[in-house]
Amino acid sequence: MKTLITFLFSFLFIFNISAQSDQKAIKIANKVMETMGGEENWNNVHYLKWNFGKRILHWNKWSGNVRVESPKETLVILVNINTNKGKAFKNGKLITDTKESEKLVNKAKKWWINDSYWLTMPWKLLDPGVTLKYIDTTKLKNGHKADILQMTFEKVGVTPNNKYYVYVDTKENLIKQWAFFANYKDEKPKFTKPWDNYQKLENVLLSFDRSDFGPKNVEAKQTFDSAIFTDL
After folding, report:
1. Rounded mean pLDDT of 184-211?
2. How many Å apart are CA 195 and CA 212, to the nearest integer?
3. Are 137 and 170 spatial neighbours (Cβ–Cβ below 8 Å)?
4. What is the signed CA dihedral for 195, 128, 221, 64, rounded to 10 degrees?
5. Where are the domains of the chain?
6. What is the C-alpha to C-alpha distance for residues 117 and 122, in angstroms, rounded to an integer?
7. Model confidence at 92: pLDDT above 60
8. What UniProt keywords apply to this chain's record, in alphabetical order (predicted)?
9. Residue 175: is it exposed, middle or buried by C-beta count within 10 angstroms (0-12/13-18/19+)?
């Protein structure tokens, strides 16, 4: 399984190199991922759990199984992000209405897309459909220089018109800040947030429990109870 994952990653990486990303941006992105532990170690991470806002997410990276818990709505939703199949529970009871169940399963996948991006974005800089451009070099608040990379998207994700600026510390080769634009034509971002407090889990660096909004209480494991993804 791990060999297959590594092969697929390598294939997709080569595919993306032929897209519209510029070589300087690609080189910087590769340095970021190498500093964070490298693609092999990232692919070897089997299971992730984290909090995002009031949601709790569990993700089997190898199978695509996801569990989303929303205590505020008394919901537990199980979905496979590759097949889009799943089931939902409300107040501890299985939802049997097909339309309602499908609606919630789709909702859970969208939550996962958003919430996982806040955690794993640096590993997705060279994803297929992503165009990465070097914009400029600026200074961060700590005085370090940072390269600004622009991320735009083509026919990927649920909001392909978005744009991001990511700020890569030139000394540490780590993303330290990002800015979100709702539309790629926008000149001013909706927000600019820190990407800090990197911590090492399962031989990779992840940014969480940040100085501002973001993922919290992250866990990474190789072994876990598979019933998390099948049972309430």
Report:
1. 97
2. 8
3. yes
4. 130
5. 2-6+21-229
6. 9
7. yes
8. Signal
9. buried
Quick check: 27 and 17 in contact, CB under 8 A? Answer: no
| 3-class DSSP string for 166-195 | EEEECCCCEEEEEEEECCCCCCCCCEEEEC
Please give the Cα distance from 120 to 131 (Å, whole number).
Answer: 17
Query: At a CB cut-off of 8 Å and minimum separation 6, what does 207 contact?
Result: 119, 122, 175, 195, 196, 197, 198, 199, 214
Pure H helices in the chain: 2-17, 23-35, 39-44, 98-120
Q: Determine contact, residues 165/152, Cβ cutoff 8 Å.
A: no
pLDDT digits (tens, 9 = 90+) for 103-156: 999 999 999 999 999 999 999 999 999 999 999 999 999 999 999 999 999 877
- What's the CA gap between 184 and 190, in Å, rounded? 12
What gap in Å lies between CA 168 and CA 30, rounded to an integer? Answer: 11
The C-alpha atoms of residue 177 and residue 159 are separated, in whole angstroms, by: 21
26-43 as b/e: b if 16+ CB within 10 A: bebbbbbbebbbebeebb
pLDDT for 159: 75
Phi, psi (deg, nearest 5) at residue 33: -70, -35
Give the helix/strand (H/E) hosting 58. Answer: strand 55-60
CATH code at 2-6+21-229: 2.50.20
